[in-house]
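// run 5 | inverse folding | seed 20
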């Protein structure tokens, strides 16, 4: 058959094709949003301070949590308060065991910051991935 002899596409087939592509585009945008919100590393750095506690807690997902008390004064601006606490989560068992056995010591902790929190990773958007130094 030549192009002139082929019957035109039905309107329903065009609509079905459009809806299929639109659904695929929406799913890709949604997947991109989920990745950006929960798995894209927004920032990373090092925080220093005295380890206040390291605990394993959670109702459904047992996660490792900790708090670092940073040195310094608490007022960054006039009329404003700043926190000298760094609350974080830990994914690695070995890092948690090191923190747990050395509570009260001075640590330099490397962390990654995410936009959102996923329950199986921890209760905070700050995830400690290694210990830089311990004193």
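// decoded
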């Amino acid at each position: 058959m030549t192009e002139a002899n082929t019957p035109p596409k039905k309107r329903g087939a065009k609509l079905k094709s459009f809806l299929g592509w639109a659904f695929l585009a929406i799913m890709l945008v949604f997947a991109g949003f989920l990745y950006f919100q929960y798995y894209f590393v927004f920032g990373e750095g090092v925080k220093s301070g005295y380890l206040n506690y390291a605990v394993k807690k959670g109702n459904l997902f047992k996660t490792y949590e900790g708090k670092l008390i940073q040195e310094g004064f608490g007022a960054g601006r006039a009329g404003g308060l700043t926190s000298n606490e760094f609350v974080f989560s830990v994914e690695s068992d070995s890092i948690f065991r090191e923190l747990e056995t050395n509570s009260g010591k001075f640590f330099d902790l490397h962390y990654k910051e995410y936009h959102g929190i996923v329950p199986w990773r921890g209760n905070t958007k700050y995830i400690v991935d290694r210990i830089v130094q311990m004193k």
